[in-house]
Amino acid sequence: MIDSLFWLILFFLALAIGWGLGRSGISWSARSHGSVKPIPSYPYVPLLDEQSDEALQRFIRALEINDSTLDAHLAVGRLLRKRGEVDKAIQLHEGMLANRQLTNAQSFQVHLELGRDFLAAGVLSRAETLFLELAEEKAVRLAALKGLLRIYEQEHEWSKAVEVCERLIAEDSYYRSVLAHYFCELAEQDTRHGRPKDALGYLEQALQADSSCLRAFLLQAKLFSRAERHADAFSALIQACRLQPALVGSVGNDVLEAAGRSGADLEGALRAVIGEGRGLPVTAAVLVLARQIAQRSTSEALRFVQEHLRAYPSLLALKGWVELCQICGDSGKVAMEDIEGALDKLLLVDFRYRCERCGFAGKLLHWQCPACHGWGVVKPLY
Ligand SMILES: [Zn+2]
């Protein structure tokens, strides 16, 4: 089914190329044959029938490359690559490059596609060489730099990725957040190699690139906590929670511990998080705060959660309320336990994180979306 769909698409692409040739009057001309348009006898027929290397070679030889047909050529190459037939895509693009009539601009386009072929084939050194050269050509600079990033990400060459990313920032501010993630990767590398000071330096750079880099705050908190700098750890955690209040659900215990060890004003900090965020995302913060309040007044804590639950009902809020009821008094405890067990199951089957960009959903927090490769786009649900 997919196969026949592919060949159908190729058929229409070839028709488009034929149309381009017809318009440019290079290979055949309807006008010269009178009023009846001739049916083009090539190049799509052998490609459709044989699906072989020979067919591909004939396809390459048969087509003249000019401005009207270049896009269709490139589209065929992309289709081949997408189908996993990278060797054929390489053949096609190398065949096109053998054509001496290519203009510089056309040649850059084809080289770019060839670089992408090598990237897809895992021949990273050849892809890198091509992209490095193309990154100096204005017309394809952006695409070449993006290609380089994909290579350095695969190779975990984060320093090189940083250099390339800094060049991309001028074109697209999205790369500020990507750059911050590269610094975080460097920081994680240094942490693994027992160089926490260097790691903290990279985290500073991450936050300079993107002051709302959640990951940098969380990594900072971890390093500060290991160095027994609990007040710094607490403040980094709270910064992270202010950026993304739903995060309190997963780092709530760290927040409590850092506050306990540093004597920081936990209640004030959580109230700030709740006040800024509001709505469903602050549910986790409301629940942590309620436990604090419960230490001095159980009725105030229950009222606090109940108000939030009524305004912003959610499974998480309901579960928190049930838990709090159990802590605050044991009336109807058995029924409460049943409810809580059921809710636990509901929460488990649910996806906890979703990519804002492509909708990818999963149970783990990925810094780089496995589906669309976007950085910092997977967000916790609540
Ligand atoms: Zn995604």
From TrEMBL:
<dbReference type="GO" id="GO:0046872">
    <property type="term" value="F:metal ion binding"/>
</dbReference>
<dbReference type="InterPro" id="IPR011990">
    <property type="entry name" value="TPR-like_helical_dom_sf"/>
</dbReference>
<dbReference type="InterPro" id="IPR036410">
    <property type="entry name" value="HSP_DnaJ_Cys-rich_dom_sf"/>
</dbReference>
<keyword id="KW-0479">Metal-binding</keyword>
<dbReference type="Pfam" id="PF13432">
    <property type="entry name" value="TPR_16"/>
</dbReference>
<dbReference type="Pfam" id="PF13176">
    <property type="entry name" value="TPR_7"/>
</dbReference>
<dbReference type="InterPro" id="IPR041166">
    <property type="entry name" value="Rubredoxin_2"/>
</dbReference>
<feature type="domain" description="LapB rubredoxin metal binding">
    <location>
        <begin position="353"/>
        <end position="380"/>
    </location>
</feature>
<protein>
    <submittedName>
        <fullName>Lipopolysaccharide biosynthesis regulator YciM, contains six TPR domains and a predicted metal-binding C-terminal domain</fullName>
    </submittedName>
</protein>
<dbReference type="Pfam" id="PF18073">
    <property type="entry name" value="Zn_ribbon_LapB"/>
</dbReference>
<dbReference type="InterPro" id="IPR019734">
    <property type="entry name" value="TPR_rpt"/>
</dbReference>
